[in-house]
Amino acid sequence: MVITVLVVDDQEMVRAGFSALLDAQPDIEVVGQAGDGAQAVELAAELTPDVILMDVRMPVLDGLAATQRILADSTPGQPPRVVMLTTFDLDDYVYAALRAGASGFLLKHSTPDELAAAVRVVAAGDALLAPSVTRRLVEDFARAQPVVSATPVGLTPRETDVLRLVARGLSNRQIADELVLAEQTVKTHVSNILTKLDLRDRAQAVVYAYEAGVVIPGPRH
To answer: Which residues form the HTH luxR-type domain (predicted)?
Structure first.
């Protein structure tokens, strides 16, 4: 199954470069390019791509506002997966985009393999949380958020344990090793967590975990 992608960046060379790299993949097709957020909103509605690579800072309409509009206007149950592109490790726009429903972010100097892998990861329904900069970003901005509750309503103790490890950026396999569980069991727990907390994906689960006080920001959790 081919993954369709919309590339959004105000620099033409960046758009062309990313598009060429992705089009070279047998399972990825770039169906459109946009030079600003307003154009991205129009093309997203017209082309309904699986994944959108969205620059953060652009003229006319920035990436955050564009992401909010695209996800708000998308067909219920079938939203595109948005990956924010940034040149900065820590960027408040990216954090806000995660809260708005973006599935993660990628640094512009990532390798071609990392770029293609990012598209595949979010297209599969996962969040792009592996880079340690993502955890640093979420921690940095979550420090200023009020603690609501350390025990999410409706989650079992085991699901709470899994949520804490998701917030640390661990994969399902790593969580399984940590808790001595089958990987499929962890996957089921994650699915239950997202359903019970009405979250879009793991990216929103990470933000929720920090903001709700399930995980306290710091070097170790």
So the answer is: 148-213
Coil/strand/helix, residue 126: coil
Rounded distance between C-alpha atoms, residue 182 and residue 119, angstroms: 26
Distance of CA 75 to the CA centre of its chain: 18
CA distances from 66 to 40, 45, 104, 144, 213 (A): 7, 12, 15, 25, 29
Give the integer Cα–Cα distance in Å for 52 and 41.
10
CA distance 28 to 4: 6
Q: Write the pLDDT tens digit of every residue in 17-38.
A: 999 999 999 999 999 999 999 9
Beta sheet of 51-55, edge-to-edge order: 28-34, 3-8, 51-55, 81-86, 104-107
The pair of three-digit structure tokens given for residue 52, joined into one six-digit string = 């959108």
